[in-house]
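User: Structure tokens for this complex, please. No commentary.
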Amino acid sequence: MTAPPLRNRRLWLAVAAVFALLALPPARAWLEATMTRHMLVQMPLLVGLGFALGHRLPARLRNRLLARAGGPLACLTAASFAATYWMLPRALDAAAASAAADAAKFVTLPLLIGLPTGLAWRALGVIGRGFVWTNLVSMLLFAGWLYIAAPVRVCNSYLLDDQAQAGWWMIRIAAFIFAAWFAALFAGRRRGMMAMRGRRPAAPPRRAGLLPAAMPPFRMQ
Amino acid sequence: MMFGRRALATTTACALLGGAVLWWGSDGFTAFTAESARRRAVLAEPRPLPAVALEDQDGRPLAFADYAGRRLAVEFIYTRCDTVCYSLGAAFRQIGERLPGGDPALLSISFDPAHDDPARLREYGERFGADGQRWRIARPRSGDDLAALLAAFGVVVIADEIGGFEHNAAIHLIGGDGRLRQISDLDAVDAFVAGLADDA
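Assistant:
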């Protein structure tokens, strides 16, 4: 299951390049100028970079790291707490206003949310991944509704209109994730049933993707 | 799935550490926004203010030190503002009416000094019934003074799409010792006035 080294090297380069690009002062200023871009573009990208790293590590290294870290539950716990911290409006305000807080954000989003989730992802199994997705969707819906309905600004750095716009985008993203997840769930089931009836060979085992379709459940050892 | 001792230990450690960080980051789960954090911080520890140079609506120089030994209520405004500043102006007028006499002194400070020259400050004061003595309207003399002022008070001013500004508007109370000691909502004038009477 180990990805060919060349492919991995390309991935590391891509991750490093995107990180460097995001960290450039003009990119930071532009992405942090509105709440929507800050919360829903820059921050998810930073988490995604860490996720890609953890998820695409060579299998042996990844499993060793995962075992060292105490397994998938410990990883998810760390990621949830870090994510909760960065969901505090105060933390977003601080990142927009202070370079030190922004630097902390650039380090902790990939390393404390993305990386552990990526390490644990295969080990989570369909149910664990479903738990992550449903949590993400419900959190986005809740926060989105709050941001749309709030009559006052929760962040001093962002306009009230901007806040409502971010809220609407959270609702849209939640709906999209839910639809994609749901569709993938059915696609995976259908493929499995067709394979059972012998109509078509089962899809070859793939590397565990983001969505639950066609992923063999993980068994430790 | 195996759930060994290591898993239990690291999960517990993550949860404890994570809980501690959240506790620290929200002042014990009480302040989730920068605005509530600013208000709590000032209450817990009144904050000294920088010696910034201001000028009032008549072009007279002004500094916080001029108010030593006297309580001073401060609001931040810009004269083109026709939304929240109306509430600010109205709140200051109410405080002035409810607490006749000179205490506290009232000071409206513009954060748009490039536009708000003394003539515009005077016109703003007249609009809300400021007398120009107990209630003065002022602007910082330089960009540095403005930046130092906003940083010390924790006021964030951002441009909106229609050429104005949004800002965390509030009533700031400075004690006789020259320290910023309380930040109140505009629509809580009653509580503010009651607090002042108790404090005196």
